[in-house]
Task: structure prediction
Amino acid sequence: MRGKLWRKTGLALLLVALCGLLRVPFEDRLQTRLEADQLLPTPLGVGMIDQMGQSAFLATLGGTRALVAIYMSLLAYDHWEQQDWGGVENAFDVIYKLQPNDIQAWILGAWHQHTNASVNMEQRHDWREWKLPHEATREEVRDRYIAKGIGILGDAVRNNPESGKLYQEYAWTLWKKGGDACAAAEAYKHAIEHPGSLGFTVRFYGYTLAECPGREREAYDYLLKLYREVKERGSRPVPSVVVALKKLENTLDVPFLLRIPELEPDEALKRSLEQDSVDSGLPWLP
Amino acid sequence: MSEPLAPIKTMSPGLILGRVWTLAASTFTQLVRMRSFYFILLFALLIAAASNLNLLFSPEQKLRVIKNTSLGAMSMFAWLFAIVATAMLIPRDLEDRTLYTILAKPVSRFEYLLGKLCGVLLTIALALGAMLILFSVVLWFREAGIVAEQRQVLESSGRFSEQDVASELALITRQGVGWNLLFATWAIFLKSAVLVAMTILISTFASSSLFTIIVGATVFLIGHFHKLAFQSLSAEMEGNTLVAVLGKIIGLVIPDFRTFNVVDMVAAGVPISAGVMTSMGVLALFYVVTYSLISLFLFFDKEF
Result:
């Protein structure tokens, strides 16, 4: 009887394999379609086992990547509380690989490096324990973390090239943290072209162009176009646009007659300043 | 003396369906008595915990956490239940001696297996449906609260135009309740259906439920990465015929569960077409039908 069971089991396996011959071509075509539609996540490399641990790696194989990502978020939070920036970086590195389309995770992970870690390392008293192989200054250590944050956002936009919000964050970080106005201008340009970015990116593109050496003329023409569009609509131009244009007029030595008028304070601001003067007893000098 | 029933009457489709439904309903009752639906209480606690988790999350991340936790828990419940509960069905009937009683009646072995399959699938479908409704309600309320809060913050700051406010709120609502949750649940159900059919197949030749559970879990795990593993091995050991042949054979025998791993991306908002969903359904049906027929082949003349 046992022999008969083994024979039948062997025959059943053979039948499964024969059915597999019918199944596999259809399955392969379906998987190709799913990969093309970005419905199947990118497989994780075996190297991820060291980063996330064996159990977590096995859990991702069962299709529970999102759960593992949440667990890694808990770990990252714990590392953040202990100011273990290497731990934060490693945990977020796993999260990016598990969920490369989670835009907020990229933004948060980058923020931890370019803001939290950089400021912390610049100010903490035991920063020398984290110094680079050569004798590094606080500023160098700070800049290293800022560069890491910028690098993370660079990877983020490569993984999510359609996200205006990511380009917006990348541009701001390049500009304010990295001091690279030219690269920031390019990023703001992408932010404007893709959905998800906020309205101010239209103006910030102009401001960053203005700070990029050699592109002042381009910045002036762009901001002037924005200024005229607002005036034609009958609205009040944003003060920062006027300030930027005034600065560029001086830089480019624009003829006096072609310059835009100075910005008058709006009525609400005038009344507020007058009221403050009355309340404080100090003279109001318009 | 009464005439014996003509065999043809017991084979009428209506009677067959009736018997299969009776067995399915009885299997469902059996599984409910095993307190399998208590998991839903645990699930409710999990959603409550997830909706209050705040690890420096942005508004859209808060919703995403609830969604991912819920769908992850549903996935785990579905595949665990599919393997463990199914593995215990036939051995349990054998222990309780109900198997002999059922098969002594004019119930064919085919109807018995089909009834068991349908019973487990019905239980999983109802459980997933209940969990989907529960977490959709929680997600809907949380989404409404977060959207209202964010709208107030953005509008009161005075720095954002109407378009910007709408754009920010759209990013949040994208992570809220939508049809994608139903599609994700459908993908979870399809995977568990394949697992149920596979586990029934294993249990028809297995000697114990523990053996079935272990083999089922191993095949489930291997089914997620065997193709990719052999592709990498083949690339590293180029020209090695043995590896290529072994990979092909394993690919033919072990189901490829990776095809059903669309839950994460669908939940994230990647659109899925009706054609793709139908193809996945057809594939799952193929697995279920072939495994069921092969199970019948093994079970047909099995002696108890």
